[in-house]
Amino acid sequence: MIDLRLLRDDPDLVRASQRARGDDESAVDRLLAADTERRAAVHRADDLRAAQKAASQSVKKATPEERPAVLERAKALAAEVKVAEEEARVADEALRAAHMSIANVVAPEVPPGGEDDSVTLRTVGEVPTYDFPVRDHLEIGTALGAIDMERGAKVSGSRFYFLTGPGALLEFALAQLAITRAVAAGFTPVVAPALVRPEAMAATGFLTEHDEEVYRVERDDLYLVGTSEVPIAAMHGDEVLDLSAGPKRYAGWSACFRREAGSYGKDTKGIIRVHWFDKVELFSFCAPEDAAAEHLRLLQFEEEFLQALELPYRVVDIAAGDLGTSASRKYDLEAWFPTQGTYRELTSTSDCTTFQARRLGIRSRDADGKPQTVATLNGTACAIARTIACLLEFHQRADGSVHVPVALRPWLGGHAVLTPGMSLAPSA
RNA sequence: GGAGGCUUCGCCUAGUCCGGUCUAUGGCGCCGCACUGCUAAUGCGGUUUGGGUUUUGGCCCAUCCCGGGUUCAAAUCCCGGAGCCUCCGCCA
User: Fold this and answer.
1) Hey, what CATH topology would domain A115-418 get?
2) Could you give the CA distance from residue A276 to residue A278 in angstroms, rounded to a whole number?
């Protein structure tokens, strides 16, 4: 939800944001009107309630003779209050609906336009030429005994997989590397629940924006999260955080579940797009004025992580029309997939400013000790399945073996290369 | 799964049986002032949050876990829900 004060003070800023996103500008005027109407309705109800309260107090003080008349007036007022309250409730609901229909105000630096208007800020690392026919990650992973897609389908259906042998070790190695680096960078490690109540899902916006993407456990009225952003954001819901020592930073590990409705035919092969994967997610709560700097910090972490994996990548400044509802700015980090001959999103980071925290009721104290809504930011440290896919493809060699980035070796028995049929026991 | 207890303005707590003076008690903490060589102690005052309004002094409304209901009037009575704790059962 956007800041209504900002809307009242500078509606043109919000209109410009809507324009940049390709969203409906008139929604701004509908919200302004709903805001005015709600305030009028609340004012009427409050005044009536004050009168009714006074009347109610006078019932007790009334003499027996006056009592019937006083009671009569109080009753009449009570009925009026009931009507006015209902009107206020309706106005409030209308405001809420209008409020929800407007996405976060985009940062002024964001490129306007749609998907094709996103801007590559920089490209880091060399894209090598492979002097042999490159194989995709599924071929390599299957040959290594790292990925078993067929049995994944047998047990759970399409877009499910088993990670076995070196694949399973890679999962833990990536998780360890991500968490270790995050802790070193000041993030508090968190193991978060992957099953949450409807409130947590709704408060983070996933029931409205990504409703089709979400798995429900109807029997228990719980939802499987698509990212640990959900439990971590909701973790501090309705709290006043102490940010006097700086942002609160978390690195959350959890399983992630996505129905991938509407992505039939997209990335059907391998583990690039799957119904379940594990992920280490970065999440920061900070003062609104620190959000832009914090965003760059998350971006830097993500870049350094890809560098540690020895992967070339590019940083894309996502255009307004392609931003999520809560994001005011978003960077995608895309790494090179040789079989696709292109960069594909491996991680991303979004600055949600106060948009998400307003709905979640997460505040901190400003310099004057007044509560203010915090800013929230999220970023991928490592989406494990897709990262494994990229590593296998990018670091493949002509003989079907795969180079292991130095940073991962401590968790892979010290091995520098993964070879089909190799022993996974630590090398001497 | 069964039985019971509990949830009050940062923390602790009184109030709930028996509806109105609860405009919520007291303590701790915190802020200000006074006193005081300094500190401590003491005294006095202030200290939930959100909304509305404002001549920026204030004023009004809501807020006692959440949502309904009864009533002129609900922290208090009734119904539904959530969370925490204890015990029993089951369980990796």
Assistant:
1) BirA Bifunctional Protein; domain 2 (3.30.930)
2) 7
CA distance A313 to A268: 23
Helical pair A384-394 and A166-184, crossing angle rounded to 10 deg: 110
Give A13 CA → B63 C1' in Å.
Answer: 34
Helix or strand run (H / E) with residue A191: strand A188-191
Which nucleotides of strand B lie under 7 Å from a protein CB? 20-21, 49-53, 60-62, 72-73
- What is the rounded distance in angstroms from the CA atom of residue A46 to the CA atom of residue A288? 33
Other CB atoms within a 10 A radius of the CB of residue A373 amount to 21
Select from 1.10.287, 3.90.1570, 1.20.58, 1.20.1250 the CATH code of A4-100: 1.10.287
Where does residue A378 rank: exposed (0-12), middle (13-18), buried (19+ CB within 10 A)?
Answer: buried
Q: Which residues of A are annotated as catalytic?
A: 258, 273, 345, 348, 386
Protein-to-nucleotide distance from the CA of A67 to the C1' of B32, whole angstroms: 47
CA A55 – C1' B22 distance (Å)? 18
B/e letters for A53-92, b = 16+ CB within 10 Å, e = fewer, are: eebbeeeeeeeeeeeeebeebbeebeebbeebbebbeebe
What tens-digit pLDDT sequence spans chain A (428 residues)?
999 999 999 999 999 999 999 999 999 999 999 999 999 999 999 999 999 988 888 887 777 777 888 888 889 899 999 999 999 999 999 999 999 999 999 999 999 999 999 999 999 999 999 999 999 999 999 999 999 999 999 999 999 999 999 999 999 999 999 999 999 999 999 999 999 888 888 888 888 778 889 998 888 888 999 999 999 999 988 888 888 889 999 999 999 999 998 888 889 899 999 999 999 999 999 999 999 999 999 999 999 999 999 999 999 999 999 999 999 999 999 999 999 999 999 999 999 999 999 988 888 888 777 888 999 999 999 999 999 999 999 999 999 999 999 999 999 999 999 999 999 999 87
Domain boundaries, chain A: 4-100, 115-418
